[in-house]
Amino acid sequence: MRKLIMGIVEFREKMLPQYAEQFSKLALSQAPDALFITCSDSRVVPDLLASTHPGDLFTMRNVGNLVPPATAEGVSTGDLSEASAIEYAVLVLKVANIVVCGHSECGAMKALSTRNAKLKTPNLDKWLCHANNAAFRLEHEGPLDDRLKPHDQLSQLNVLVQLEHLMTYPIVRQQVTAGALVLSGWWFDIATGDMYAYLRTSRSFEIIDRAMADRIIARLAARAR
């Protein structure tokens, strides 16, 4: 807690002067380009990893970067917090992109893999049901990358399942169909610091280096025309 408090003081004394004008403008409105859905894990820091600033990302974080699917009427089958964030991002902020970002060594994926009965975590157990399809696919279809540890294989498949869950929301499906919204799956390797993007053509996660970034941006630009 001391580190947290002193960090606030350091920001106030050293960083705030650089951001004062930006915060003044953001106090009136926000216009982020993307909804970034990722895990609560302390090692995943979206603004650091993407070199973003206040106002750039609308971020939703939870254990396992999960998106409970919606009914045909668009009502969440899980926690309303996630559904509310999706609705606000799409309908009010009108984001052009939604990114689901999983990561290596994810505690939620480890818990889903082991299902340790000794741990009294009824809420976590119930929450992780939204990743059950990923576990099913890993068992019956195999991993995207068999070089990874089993829980990391599960983590990658979980990203794809959560993208499918997003498409169960009518507002998301409508915007994607209209070409106004793009869904992307990313995966962060904590050990190396590398970020990967899922490519449907190769059915694999590939590292986002300069060349990959240029290809992704070109595809986004083509869709926007």
UniProtKB/TrEMBL annotation:
It holds the Pfam family Pro_CA. The keyword Metal-binding applies. Zn(2+) binds at residues 39, 41, 103, 106. Reversible hydration of carbon dioxide. This is Carbonic anhydrase. Its EC number is 4.2.1.1. Belongs to the beta-class carbonic anhydrase family. The keyword Lyase applies. GO terms for biological process: carbon utilization. It comes from Paraburkholderia panacisoli. GO terms for molecular function: carbonate dehydratase activity; zinc ion binding.
